[in-house]
C-alpha cells in the first residue's frame, strides 16, 4: 500500500501544475491533425520530466517511454488525444479559447494534461515497478480516418509492443471524484452517410413534367428506418440517424437534387457491413422506381470499441483500491464512437470514464457543446488513477 499512497500524494501535490497544463491547452486549442503547438507543448513537458519523446508520429503525434526496473519484462501503453473541435466557446472563464471558433469541447485538454500528470508521477516512482510504460499522445481523434489508425500504421504498437493499452475519457454525466468501467463491447462503430438524390426540377405547379427529388428523398428516409426496426437483430444495438438535409428549392420551385447526411452506428462488424449494403439497395430501388437516381456514399469510420474483459476487471479492482467501491461505477453501452477502438481491435484494451460533473458549481454541460467545462478537481483523479492503474497492471502476473 506504500506505493499507492505515494501516487495519491504526488497527484495531490502536482494538481496545480496539472490544472495549469490543462488551462494552457484549453486556451490554445487546435483542430484535428493541426496540433502543432499542442505537440510542442507536450514534448517540452516530457523533456522536463527527463524523458526522450519521439515526435512526428502520424504527423503531430508524440510517443515516449518510461522504463522501470527490468524494462523488457512487460509493456503497458497509455493514450491521450490532443485535438479540439470547431465550436465557438461560450464559457466566461479566464482560460477561454483564444482561437476563435475552436474549442476543447470534448475534454481532450483534460486527457492530455492528465497523461502528462501521470507521466510525471510514473517517472518519480519508476523504481517501484518493473516494465515499461509507453506514452501515446494522439492527434485527430475527432476526424476520420482517426489519428489512432494512422499511429498504428506508423508502428506505435511496436518496438516495444504493449501487452495492454489504457485510455480515459471525460464523462460529464458522472460526478467529479468518480470513474466508470465496462467490460466487453462498450462504444459503437460510426460511419458517415452522404446521399444525393437526383431528379428533374422545375415549376412546382407542373408536377407532371418533373421528377421530384424531395418526394423521393422522403420515401428513402422513411424506408431506411427499417434497417434498424426490421432488419437488425434486437440483440444488436444499432442507430441510423440523419441530421442534415438540403433542398435548394422554394415554395414554387422543385430542385434538381437533394443532399442528405447522416450516421450509422452499431456494435457488430458483420451486421455493420450487411446494413450498409441494404441501405444502398433500398435507396437505389426507391429512387429508380420513382424515375430518379441516387448517389449513396458511406465513409467507413471507426470500428466498435471493446474493453478486454480480464484487463478491465483487473483495472476496475485497482480503481476500487485507489478510490473506494462507491466511487467506481458500472457503465452501460454507449452509442457514441471513439477511435481508441482501433487500439482495442489490436491489443488488450481498457477505456474508462472520468467523472467531471459538479452540479453545485453549475458544471453540467455535455461534451460537444459551447459551454462544456469540468470541475478541475477531476484532474487529480485523472493523473493519479492512470498512474496507479499502470503500476497495478505492470505488477500483475
Give an overview of the whole structure.
The chain is α/β, with parallel strands linked by helices and 397 residues long. It folds into two domains: 277 residues, Aminopeptidase; 113 residues, 2-Layer Sandwich (Alpha-Beta Plaits), CATH 3.30.70.360. It is built from eleven helices and 16 strands. The strands form four sheets. It has an eight-stranded mixed β-sheet with strand order 1-2-4-3-5-16-6-15, sandwiched between helices. A four-stranded antiparallel β-sheet has the order 10-12-8-13. It has a two-stranded antiparallel ribbon with strand order 7-14. Strand 3, helix 4 and strand 4 form a beta-alpha-beta unit. Helix 1 runs antiparallel to helix 11 and helix 4 packs across helix 11. The longest helix has 21 residues. It is elongated and about 80 Å long. It starts with a helix and ends with a helix. The model has no long low-confidence stretch (mean pLDDT 97).
What is the number of helices?
A: 11
* Shape verdict: elongated
Spatial order of the strands forming the largest sheet:
1-2-4-3-5-16-6-15
CATH architecture of the largest domain: 3-Layer(aba) Sandwich
Helical coverage, percent range: 25-40%
- Count every beta strand, where a strand is a DSSP E run of 2 or more residues: 16
The average pLDDT value, as a whole number, equals: 97
CATH-derived topology of the largest domain: Aminopeptidase
> Low-confidence parts lasting 5 or more residues at pLDDT below 50?
none
Approximate strand percentage: 25-35%
**Rg (C-alpha, Å):** 24 Å
CATH superfamily of the largest domain: Zn peptidases
CATH class of the largest domain: Alpha Beta
Amino acid at each position: 500500500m506504500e506505493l499507492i499512497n505515494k501516487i495519491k500524494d504526488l497527484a495531490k501535490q502536482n494538481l496545480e501544475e496539472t490544472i495549469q497544463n490543462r488551462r494552457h491547452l484549453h486556451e490554445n486549442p487546435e483542430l484535428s491533425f493541426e496540433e502543432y503547438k499542442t505537440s510542442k507543448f507536450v514534448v517540452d513537458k516530457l523533456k522536463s520530466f527527463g524523458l526522450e519523446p519521439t515526435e512526428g508520429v502520424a504527423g503531430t503525434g508524440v510517443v515516449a517511454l518510461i522504463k522501470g526496473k527490468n524494462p523488457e519484462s512487460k509493456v503497458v501503453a497509455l493514450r491521450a488525444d490532443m485535438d479540439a473541435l470547431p465550436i465557438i466557446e461560450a464559457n466566461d472563464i479566464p482560460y477561454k479559447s483564444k482561437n476563435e471558433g475552436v474549442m476543447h469541447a470534448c475534454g481532450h485538454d483534460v486527457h492530455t494534461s492528465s497523461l502528462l500528470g501521470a507521466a510525471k508521477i510514473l517517472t518519480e516512482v519508476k523504481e517501484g515497478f518493473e516494465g515499461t510504460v509507453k506514452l501515446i499522445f494522439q492527434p485527430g481523434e475527432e476526424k476520420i480516418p482517426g489519428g489512432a489508425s494512422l499511429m498504428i500504421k506508423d508502428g506505435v504498437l511496436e518496438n516495444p509492443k504493449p501487452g495492454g493499452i489504457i485510455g480515459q475519457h471525460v464523462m460529464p454525466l458522472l460526478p467529479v471524484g468518480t470513474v466508470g468501467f465496462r467490460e466487453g463491447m462498450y462504444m459503437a462503430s460510426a460511419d458517415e452517410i452522404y446521399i444525393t438524390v437526383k431528379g428533374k426540377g422545375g415549376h412546382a405547379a407542373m408536377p407532371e413534367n418533373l421528377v421530384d427529388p424531395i418526394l423521393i428523398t422522403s420515401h428513402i428516409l422513411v424506408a431506411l428506418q427499417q434497417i434498424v426496426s426490421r432488419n437488425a437483430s434486437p440483440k444488436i444495438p444499432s442507430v441510423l440517424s440523419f441530421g442534415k438535409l438540403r433542398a435548394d428549392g422554394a415554395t414554387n420551385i422543385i430542385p434538381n437534387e437533394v443532399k442528405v447526411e447522416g450516421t450509422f452506428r452499431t456494435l457488430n462488424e458483420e451486421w455493420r457491413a450487411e446494413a450498409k449494403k441494404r441501405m444502398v439497395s433500398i435507396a437505389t430501388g426507391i429512387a429508380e422506381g420513382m424515375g430518379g437516381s441516387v448517389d449513396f456514399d458511406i465513409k467507413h469510420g471507426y470500428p466498435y470499441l471493446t474493453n478486454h474483459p480480464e484487463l478491465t476487471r483487473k483495472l476496475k479492482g485497482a480503481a476500487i483500491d485507489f478510490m473506494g467501491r462507491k466511487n467506481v461505477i458500472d457503465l452501460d453501452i454507449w452509442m457514441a464512437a471513439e477511435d481508441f477502438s482501433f487500439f482495442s481491435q489490436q491489443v488488450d484494451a481498457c477505456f474508462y470514464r472520468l467523472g467531471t460533473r459538479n452540479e453545485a458549481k453549475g458544471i453540467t454541460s455535455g461534451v460537444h457543446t459551447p459551454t462544456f467545462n469540468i470541475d478541475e478537481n477531476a484532474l487529480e483523479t485523472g493523473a493519479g488513477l492512470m498512474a496507479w492503474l499502470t503500476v497495478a497492471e505492470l505488477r500483475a502476473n
